[in-house]
Amino acid sequence: GAGVSQSPSNKVTEKGKDVELRCDPISGHTALYWYRQRLGQGLEFLIYFQGNSAPDKSGLPSDRFSAERTGESVSTLTIQRTQQEDSAVYLCASSLVLAGYYGYTFGSGTRLTVV
Amino acid sequence: AQSVTQLDSQVPVFEEAPVELRCNYSSSVSVYLFWYVQYPNQGLQLLLKYLSGSTLVKGINGFEAEFNKSQTSFHLRKPSVHISDTAEYFCAVSEVNNNDMRFGAGTRLTVKP
């Protein structure tokens, strides 16, 4: 597609429920990234994919968080047993190989609210 | 791994005044450097980037940044700001041949009339 698409744009869920966030990267972008942005704070790196491989999972906050990617397309970030501290905007970005050279294209994010 | 420090969390400034947003990075290898802007209730947009060559980089909306290797800095500047420049600005660093990018905590620029 023309840009990075994320869905849903807003999600309100009850504490303890599981949620699934989706990211559809730009066609042809092999690298895909997930970040979390809490209210008034910076971007917190979660995970990145090169193709469907995730070389760096060091940013995932706990074992309640997981992510997968099918080939070089859609990625899903799953949060199990959500907690209130999971409330944030979850941003996805994609890039061509060697992201550092080309920079990222960000999606508009999914605003997650855990009540 | 690389890291970024943005020295000012908030910068208030009057319209038409100059502004500098400071950014320092840490890395043991060569890096690429970026500035992103996030307008209220919008996603992040690339403002400018340094890859190699000239240390002075010009971006969109009249912004520029200068890479200083000895001081490990990449400060963002604009000679005359507008109300519409009010936004959150993020500095980011990526190590050469490394695929992930790390962001600073952001600087909120508020331009007052």
Could you walk me through the main structural features you see in this protein, from its secondary elements to its overall organization?
Helices cover 3% and strands 50% of the residues of chain A. Chain A is built from 1 helix and 11 strands; from the N terminus they run βββββββββαββ. Chain A has one helix spanning 99-102; strands at residues 5-7, 10-13, 19-24, 31-37, 43-50, 53-56, 65-69, 75-79, 88-95, 105-106, 110-114. In chain A, strand 7 and strand 8 (75-79) form a beta hairpin. The radius of gyration of chain A is 13 Å and the shape is globular. Chain B is mainly beta. Helix content of chain B is 0%, strand content 56%. Chain B is globular. The termini of chain B are far apart. Chains A and B meet through strand 4, strand 5 and helix 1 of A and strand 5, strand 6, strand 10 and strand 11 of B.
How are the SSEs ordered, and which strands pair?
The complex is a heterodimer of chains A (115) and B (113).
Chain A: E1 5-7, E2 10-13, E3 19-24, E4 31-37, E5 43-50, E6 53-56, E7 65-69, E8 75-79, E9 88-95, H1 99-102, E10 105-106, E11 110-114
Parallel strand pairs in A: 2-11
Antiparallel strand pairs in A: 1-3, 3-8, 4-5, 4-9, 5-6, 7-8, 9-10, 9-11
Chain B: E1 3-6, E2 10-14, E3 19-21, E4 23-26, E5 31-38, E6 44-50, E7 56-58, E8 64-68, E9 73-78, E10 87-95, E11 101-103, E12 107-112
Parallel strand pairs in B: 2-12
Antiparallel strand pairs in B: 1-4, 3-9, 5-6, 5-10, 7-8, 8-9, 10-11, 10-12
